[in-house]
Specification:
Blueprint: E1 2-6, H1 11-22, E2 26-31, E3 46-49, H2 57-60, E4 65-68, H3 83-103, E5 108-114, H4 139-158, E6 161-167, E7 169-171, H5 180-189, E8 194-196, E9 202-203, E10 205-207, H6 208-219, E11 230-234, E12 240-241, H7 242-252, E13 259-261, E14 273-274, E15 280-282
Parallel strand pairs: 1-2, 1-4, 2-3, 4-5, 5-6, 6-11, 7-10, 8-13, 9-14
Antiparallel strand pairs: 9-12, 11-15
Helix pairs in contact: 1-6, 3-4
Length: 285
């Protein structure tokens, strides 16, 4: 299969490329000029330097599907407050890319969403269902939620295959150095004590390598139907406390320093349980 991929040099994109190539697929990967992959690749894809507004028609015409990973704001942990840029890149430019892909003959799409689209709604559920109301609270999450609604309606209108997969707490090689797992790994490496909260928050942590497999399966899914978008929560199905996650990896990293549990306060309005219900829902016209 020939896959057109956006966000190819990012954390998840880099891992996805490695897995897809290992499975024999060909990748046309869009990335920002001068950006580099977050892990070493087993083989380079066909790189296209540019952004979502770049004319990539010649590659789309050769592609069997479009996998959309790129998003504005995610690189700052989803807290980027530039609403104008979030709306432009995550909604307007994304829709323009999909329209162009359709004109070029692409009829199968995978959209990577975020658990943060659920926002405050997630507080009401032990396990958040795929059809829970979307109540995001940041520019990044709000624009992703709006794009989810728009692209689902667009897929129904165009009668194409679309799979929206909302990722929960992904960790692993290549993630940003300020994220939890990477911070743990670095502290263990330099033998530095690690300050953390009490760690009572419950999350669904899933390794990026497993996510890459799930995403590839999500685009080759034979159950996808024209005009019937499929929405899936992506998680491990094994929720655990942040404290137990940290203790496990601290031991795995053979850390000689200490976990300073309770040294940091919880974030303001911390959601103590944010866990997905792992199943899918198809929305019909």
């Amino acid at each position: 299969m020939k896959i057109f991929l956006t966000g190819g040099s990012g954390f998840i994109g880099s891992n996805f490329i490695n897995h897809a190539i290992s499975e024999g697929h060909q990748i046309f990967a869009l990335k920002k000029t001068n950006s580099s992959t977050k892990i070493k690749l087993m083989r380079e894809p066909t790189w296209i330097n540019g952004d979502l507004d770049t004319d990539v028609s010649e590659y789309l015409k050769e592609s069997d599907c479009l996998v959309h990973l790129a998003a504005h704001g995610v690189y700052k942990g989803g807290i980027d407050s530039d609403w104008s840029k979030a709306i432009k890149w995550n909604i307007s430019s994304t829709l323009n890319l999909f329209e162009n892909a359709y004109k070029c003959g692409v009829r199968k799409y995978l959209v990577i969403g975020s658990c943060f689209e659920f926002g405050k709604s997630g507080q009401r559920y032990k396990n958040i269902p795929v059809d829970a109301p979307l109540q995001p609270i940041t520019a990044y999450a709000s624009s992703k939620a709006a794009a989810s609604i728009i692209l689902n309606a667009w897929a129904i209108d165009k009668k194409v295959k679309l799979h929206l997969m909302r990722l929960f707490h992904v960790y692993g090689e290549g993630e940003a150095s300020n994220r939890l797992w990477a911070s743990l790994k670095n502290a263990a490496k330099i033998q530095e004590d690690f300050e953390m909260t009490k760690g009572e928050q419950v999350r669904d942590f899933i390794d990026v390598k497993e996510v890459s497999k799930i995403l590839l399966n999500g685009i080759i899914n034979e159950k996808l139907e024209n005009g019937n978008p499929l929405i899936t929560n992506v998680g491990s199905g094994n929720p655990k406390s942040v404290l137990s996650f940290c203790k496990k990896w601290w031991k795995t990293f053979n850390a000689k320093s200490k976990l300073l549990v309770g040294a940091k306060p919880y974030r303001e309005n911390e959601i103590m349980r944010y866990v997905p219900e792992i199943n899918s829902k198809t929305f019909y016209n």
